[in-house]
Amino acid sequence: MINALWLNSFVTLCETGHFTRAAARLNMTQPGLSQHIQKLEAQLGKPLLSRDGKSFIPTPAGEALLALGRRRRAEEQALLQSLEADDPGAGPLRIACSGSLALLLYPRLVALMQAAPRLTLHLEAAPQPRILDGLVAGDFDLGITEAAPDHPRLTGTECGEDALCLLLPKDHATPRRFADLARLGFVSHPDGPAYADALLGRNFPEEYPGADRLRRACSINQIGQIPLAVAEGLGYTILPRSGLAGFAGRDRLHLADLPKPHRHALWLLHRKHRVLPARATRVARLITETLQS
């Protein structure tokens, strides 16, 4: 490795063209500067300066070393400028959340990218375990989960809440007994069984048989299409309220008002001890504002 201090001395000498002026700029003695040049020549095994009295010009080896020194200076200056800038409207950011939250957040994120064209946001709809694993592995910068972090390398703040909704066809009355739902059939989806256990088990504790025994009317894994089957009268389903954000046919649904609602907090997580860039702070603020509105 070429000594950075010696290299800086050589570049300064070539820029000033004079040992005395270079030594003054470097706040060192002229003999000390000469020693730096001699050490570089010894390390490289080639003369760096062609001397003519008190004047000099770089040798071919000196010209190559001067070019290297100038590149390093330019790279260091660019690094310092990037560290100072930390532009909240530029750079990539990776976010993970549930599919229902993705429907709610994506239009806001698109609007933000339109306002800040140098900002590149990557949003992945993922199940809870994938979000947690991805945050720990560094695949995501921010993640939204339904529980506080319990991993030692993660931290976060509560950013809002979501509620589970029982979706029925428009003309179907709110069920008083679980048997009223059983006749309809369950429109299943990947998170559906867990949601059913949470909401139906709470409201029909004596009758509810468990998600594994529900009669399924159909199933789909595209969250934006799940309410469609209900709107067409094929059955009932359970989704977070955020999952209805992108469905245009809400007037064809009946959101049942059950006596024991199920709400869960939402947490915005990131790696512990990581200093977030300004763009992450900006997006985190947008997410929190959206989920609390």
From TrEMBL:
Keyword field contains Hydrolase: no
Keywords in alphabetical order: DNA-binding, Transcription, Transcription regulation
PANTHER family, A to Z: HTH-TYPE TRANSCRIPTIONAL REGULATOR (PTHR30126), TRANSCRIPTIONAL REGULATOR LYSR FAMILY (PTHR30126:SF99)
Lineage: Bacteria, Pseudomonadati, Pseudomonadota, Alphaproteobacteria, Rhodobacterales
UniProt protein name: Hypothetical LysR, Transcriptional regulator
Matches recorded under Gene3D superfamilies: Periplasmic binding protein-like II, Winged helix-like DNA-binding domain superfamily/Winged helix DNA-binding domain
Residue intervals of the HTH lysR-type domain: 1-59
GO terms of molecular function: DNA-binding transcription factor activity; transcription cis-regulatory region binding
Organism: Roseovarius nubinhibens (strain ATCC BAA-591 / DSM 15170 / ISM)
Family statement: Belongs to the LysR transcriptional regulatory family.
Keyword Disulfide bond: no
Protein origin, superkingdom: Bacteria
Stored InterPro entries: LysR_HTH_N (IPR000847), LysR_subst-bd (IPR005119), WH-like_DNA-bd_sf (IPR036388), WH_DNA-bd_sf (IPR036390)
Pfam family, one: HTH_1
